[in-house]
Amino acid sequence: MSAVGEGDWALLIVEGRERRKSYVFRVRSKASYTTFAGSLRGSQLVGIPWGSRVELGKGVAYVLKPNLYDLMMHVLPRRSQVIYPKDAGYIASAAGLLPGMRVLEAGAGSGFLTIWLAAHVCPGGAVYTYEVRSDMRELAASNVRAAGLEGCVTIKEGDIRKGAEERELDAAFLDMPDPWEALGPIRPSLKPSAPVVVFTPTVNQVIKLLDALKSIGGYAVQEVSELIKREWEARPEALRPAVRMIGHTGFITVLRALA
Amino acid sequence: MSAVGEGDWALLIVEGRERRKSYVFRVRSKASYTTFAGSLRGSQLVGIPWGSRVELGKGVAYVLKPNLYDLMMHVLPRRSQVIYPKDAGYIASAAGLLPGMRVLEAGAGSGFLTIWLAAHVCPGGAVYTYEVRSDMRELAASNVRAAGLEGCVTIKEGDIRKGAEERELDAAFLDMPDPWEALGPIRPSLKPSAPVVVFTPTVNQVIKLLDALKSIGGYAVQEVSELIKREWEARPEALRPAVRMIGHTGFITVLRALA
Amino acid sequence: MSAVGEGDWALLIVEGRERRKSYVFRVRSKASYTTFAGSLRGSQLVGIPWGSRVELGKGVAYVLKPNLYDLMMHVLPRRSQVIYPKDAGYIASAAGLLPGMRVLEAGAGSGFLTIWLAAHVCPGGAVYTYEVRSDMRELAASNVRAAGLEGCVTIKEGDIRKGAEERELDAAFLDMPDPWEALGPIRPSLKPSAPVVVFTPTVNQVIKLLDALKSIGGYAVQEVSELIKREWEARPEALRPAVRMIGHTGFITVLRALA
Amino acid sequence: MSAVGEGDWALLIVEGRERRKSYVFRVRSKASYTTFAGSLRGSQLVGIPWGSRVELGKGVAYVLKPNLYDLMMHVLPRRSQVIYPKDAGYIASAAGLLPGMRVLEAGAGSGFLTIWLAAHVCPGGAVYTYEVRSDMRELAASNVRAAGLEGCVTIKEGDIRKGAEERELDAAFLDMPDPWEALGPIRPSLKPSAPVVVFTPTVNQVIKLLDALKSIGGYAVQEVSELIKREWEARPEALRPAVRMIGHTGFITVLRALA
């Protein structure tokens, strides 16, 4: 569809004199939308081509069709701390994910990492994601469907700390408070050499994980790292890093399953 | 195959008392391999199961089957500055890539970003990558084949600054010294709203790009950012960021094509 | 004085269950003070020893005598972007400041950098700081007096782009939008080898400065850098970098005067 | 002295086509010096004015009188991990140091932090620094003399974990592996509200320190932070952060003594 339709998701990039800000919302012809540079009515949007420019009182708005990134950053519902694209992109590439691979995830949470993993292994591959809470399973399922990736994702009820039913998996991804409880139980589900990527917010968890591995056995440590995303103010006459930034999301530990 | 074979690529994670280092090489029974913690002979490796542990003089080695990440970080040949996984992963996720999408890249370079893009859109999608130098086209083709992704990648001879033949593309990726020369010409190849992600090492290029966009038109700026990867020394009794790190690779500018 | 007196400045470090926050204010027995963990009355503070602990509804407050750092971070008035301690400390040490040195500054601004410079060269040394705006000169003078350093500081009316009257200075510090306009004029005021430290918020200014130096002459470039301060959440059971941080203040360029 | 003399320390900033590097050495007329851009003889240096320019085979050298920063970064001898100017500058400013203050340090180490502390409190103030090792005491004393600050520094034999003899100190600085052992014993030496700044390389030490404080008592936690210095390649036509950087030195914890 080349024109904005009633009920479509829209991404608005609004440019003022010294600022730029993105908004994502559903277009309703009877609604009105407020931005830092002025308001606009839904009726101004319905029917215009995607990629149009709309004048605002104190700036300009570009009306764009949002992609998966925009939806995840702005509107997909979340009921837990989610893994952001900067981390998800690296986690998937650090695991060497390829189409057709079969991977394990726990827990599903709001399904954000699930979506990025599925985007890599789909079609032909599979993400098996375990989640104990039924409300989170429903939310994750709904978000995965919004991304159109439900064909490659199986959301399973169950506590990964009791292991997974699958075998010969190519990789595993743990985003849970106590990953050390899961590492032993999931070991039989993994191919030797399979990467296991663990995401944890605190250094205490990294220490406990590395310490626990000595007694758990069955894994080699490949890397501990963190990714820091620094946004810049995109003004060609006064280019500089943004004053405020997100200083931390979590630590990424990459393990490899042994024989 | 569950055992290390003659000629296989192997990833060795070597752990000493205070260090850990990875090595990737082809296993040859008659060769010998030197690590910081001691040497081992190829004949010790051939025939043992993947994921085995081998004692070294001053440490231990884990013998693992390398994945795409390991091959790209250690052995895929490169004849140019490549885009590393931390950036490639974010670039792909910032563009909202999904299986089946059709995207443009220029230039192919050593094919590293090509591989990550293909890993997302494959199968069903396509990466069309333009490269003026024939030696780079051959190198990129060889690396894409090594990753098993040649079915989704078309490496084309041609100067992207004269535009691309394809139409209705979902995204474009520019890793070239003068991306502002390509933005006008490729505009007709892109769907309205399509993300265009530009990777440039210097702030001068970012300034020139943002400045040029005012006269080129046809695009909205969504974001300028950089990703900083900080590795940590993975010692549970003395956890700390590594003393030496890579401080910079490049700046990522995300644009969106207008109507 | 070992007890809190009416009208004294106080620093309150308030600890709640998961947060910690500092407040600086003048103690007034008739006032009341609100913190995130509950309120307290001024009458609870007057007369208690410095370093006392006061229970709040949802936490605890420590009542401390603020030092120069606390006053500068919280209450010294500012009418311009100021240079923060992380930058000021490095700027002074990068210039090798020692007691007794005589240095130049422009502009005085709110006097924050002036104070740190004076703290190094005092007593016996001198800071000559030029400022065109009379309101800023008054503010800087007032802040320097609050720090007790007025004996070493001379705040001068004048445009540094026309040069300085002093001679044989040990260092110079430029915090102004167009430092390239001042470099030529101040050159005769500096000892050969003297460091000149320039602080600028944007990369455009750094580029323009480095470019201008080629035609201005008279200086060698020693270093361009930036300092990033990352605060951590100080919880021993869940230690992690703070989620929100200041991502940027400015770039520090160190030059050396030639013969 | 305005001319380079035999035996003087010299700072050479050497500029090549794409690089810049600093060297510090003693000038000897019979010696010769090798830089990345070519060699020069000591006889070329003796007698020329400070701030002179010397042509090299593949670049140019600026001959400068080194300041305290240059000497500390390049030539002052060290027999331990030292505290660099970026951290030392912030540590001193975070403690609100002013001329005339009396402060405690442990251990002296190579005397680098001692020097920065003395540069603040001198003259009129005092740094009392405790060190158990006699070889380190001698080294620290020698470095403090090289900086000309010996009048304000007392280097004391003794184990700070048994406390300090001084009373009514304005601040304390701990750069030692087990700072939690010293906090109780030094408490009687500090004025209420005095800042205590602790520098530790690992997160394990930060956790142990914060944990220990609960039972030690007598202190409030003001801040935990780290300073990251990012150097830039100072080329106006291709400005960018340096590819390689120091990723970590240590964590800075600021405490305040209670009543």
TrEMBL record, chains A, B, C, D:
Keywords linked to the UniProt accession: Methyltransferase, S-adenosyl-L-methionine, Transferase, tRNA processing
CC annotations in GO: tRNA (m1A) methyltransferase complex
GO biological process annotation, one example: tRNA methylation
GO molecular function: tRNA (adenine(58)-N1)-methyltransferase activity
Residues in tRNA (adenine(58)-N(1))-methyltransferase catalytic subunit TRM61 C-terminal domain copies: 60-239
SUPFAM superfamilies: S-adenosyl-L-methionine-dependent methyltransferases
Residues that bind S-adenosyl-L-methionine: S110, G111, F112, L113, E131, D159, D175
Keyword Transport: no
Coiled-coil stretches: none
Protein name: Protein L-isoaspartate methyltransferase
Source organism of the structure: Acidilobus saccharovorans (strain DSM 16705 / JCM 18335 / VKM B-2471 / 345-15)
